Amino acid sequence: MGSERILVVDDEQDILELIGYNLRKAGYTVESVATGEAALEAARKRIPDAVILDLLLPGLDGVEVCRRLKSDEATRAVPILMLTAKSEDSDIVSGLEVGADDYITKPFSPRVLVARLQTALRRVHDSRADPAANPVLRIHRLEIDAQRHTVLCAGEAVELSATEFALLEILARNPGWVFSRARIIDEIKGSDYPVTERSVDVQILGLRRKLGEHSNLIETVRGVGYRLRAE
To answer: Do the Cβ atoms of 82 and 53 come closer than 8 Å?
Structure first.
């Protein structure tokens, strides 16, 4: 970690300087641009390892920039952290639903920003690792074996449907990360899955019930979606 190239997009020069200073201090290479159009050009010219993207930009806004980056095969896997001065749920959901990986509201702590970036980069690194090298995911008191399709909670077997298992695995592999309902549907895409946002709530309800006293591991983020509690 620390040697990656980060593209920072914000139309406020002081914000660019603040983020750039702290990222360079943490050992990252930084490229800064002030518009959505410049961000797309920079990302296509040289694919960054991550993007820190302001939601409110002149011209092409952050949501559209995110949508285009995530729809391009070359940049689809690049993690995008949204920066926004807005705290409205609808704005956060808009970014998450077009593929943003995380969001940070202004004003923010530079230390928190760097920590969230490190988490995003680690997530990409882990997703590229050979799953056979570490087939069992352990977090909190959960043990999730993707090869055997089994789950233990506090040492007790938990019987889950295919959809419930996929949902739990997605959340557990990304602790602390918020998934909107639409993003969950997109991630799972199971043939047995009724593709409606209401059905996500039903699956979460069933999953919590089966986890029993550990149901609070799955947190609801009001107006946004769900996440597994970070360690």
So the answer is: yes
